[in-house]
# Entry
Amino acid sequence: MDPKYIRNFSIIAHIDHGKSTLADRMLEHTGAVKKRDMRDQLLDDMELERERGITIKARAVTIWHEKDGETYQLNLIDTPGHVDFHYEVEKSLQACEGALLLVDASQGVEAQTVANAYLATDADLEIIPVLNKLDLPHARPDEIAEEIEHSIGIDATDSLRVSAKTGEGVKEVLDAVVDRIPPPDESPDDPLRALIFDAVYDEFRGIIVYLRVVDGRIREKDKVFMPGTEKVYEAIEIGRFSPKMERTKELAAGEVGYFISNIKKLGDVRVGDTMIIHKGPEVEMLPGYKPPVHMVYADFYPTASGDFEHMREALETLSLSDSSFSFEPVTSAGLGFGFRCGFLGLLHMEIVQQRLEREHDLDMIQTAPTVTYRIELADGTEEEIHSPGQLPDPDKFERILEPVARVSMLLPSEYIGALMQVANDHRGTYVRQEYLSPTRVQLVYDIPLAEIIYDFYDKLKSCTRGYGTLNYEILGFNADDLVKLRIMVAGEEVDALSCMLHREQAEYRGRAIIKKLRKEIPRHMFEVALQAAVGGRIIARENIAALRKDVTAKCYGGDITRKRKLLEKQKEGKRRMKQIGNVDIPQKAFLSVLGGGGDAK
# Structure
């Protein structure tokens, strides 16, 4: 197809501003899906996506739209809105020439609206502002158009006004895509260059590669080379998503589609790689993507020790459909064998955990999430550590550095004082504030990432009554007075309960953890000491009293020395038992501390 009749675009927005609903109406309007096959969130095919009402994976679809007697091929990529899936948005935008910036006409500009708009601007895309949810009685499109101009600097005077729910204005949006988004500036006659922007696993067909053909064309039976993995594959099937997979046998410059070969593992495909013809002419590689950076780590342990291999298989299967998380085996004295997993953020971690429990029927314990720290060694070099257990002795390093995030928060102006107090309590450093309108303000703070992943988001929602939103990006690593809080049971350190935190918070957090443990660990035949320590200094202690049998119950009358003798004998027995006895820490004790809630977090 002539590239001048092709348009590649994406829909970007904050969570719940109607991206997937607008995509549904576009599919309906263009006849890509029959009425009887239509359902809400058609492109969100994962069960968790439909249940939570969010998009997790970006999806591509090809639709056909007629305008002025000409038929245009529109390649739409529906993207997620949550900050954790920022990487998915970035990948998708590189396969487009334009983007629809969708804004809720009642809620207005939110944190992810601004972040995604800047991403699209950085990618040099044509941005079309679209105001959605005009059917709501409290929609205020004129105010919101002004807000877009203030916060993002985009001319919103000719912004499109639609209702994705009723379908009003959808035709105008499709016409604007044709008129305002430029066609691909590429030639079908040049040597093949295709950008791999995603890859998914199918249990029957192996790896399905999503690609955008930048130059040339790719046909079935062509042999292609992927420089990133240095693999050669034959194109067994080529096609488009309409929205189901539709075989076309060829994709030309500017088109978006899929590629199937005998690819068994996701590791054999690198997202962001350039696909070229094997033994063809030399071409310049496309810039590709930066690899995803894991900022949150947590350990998963099976509750039944025999499920370790089952968990390994489940994680391997899951990694085939989600290349942005990693895992490696770890051992804990308290919890046995498990895996340390790296995630893009807390929601990403929660989704992986739920998929393991639902799709693979796994019962497991998850440790408290931690961030990536760096330690500066005496020779000036730096090392990364992903859990408190990896921290060496204090004499082996000079200082600990923690990741710091630039946090942008959008909220109604009446809550600004309460939110500033929350940010200061979480070791935040004030950067700036901007009024987007008389009632809406943007607050910007630099806050350590460890503070954000504990309870910052919950406190933000509480103090703004649900109206505040946040977006963050990692600035770098800063040194602070950080310590490792060690939790010891009967003198033995329990590494699964240790955590890294600021020295000022150590005593409070240590007391909270051992109070919870004291309630959950059953009494033994000997006294059990629970201690929280920083370095060699004990900062909090609780004792679990021993179970005591009344050995003097049958000792009637007589000299007191008879009773004392029996008590000394019992004491000696308990002392010997303590030397050889192990403290039984039940799994619910770990869950009460690690599962969160309250002060122990």
User: Anything to note?
Assistant: The radius of gyration is 29 Å. The chain has five domains: 3-180, 193-277, 296-367, 374-465, 483-600. Residues 560-580 form the longest helix (21 residues). The first strand starts at residue 6 and ends at 13.
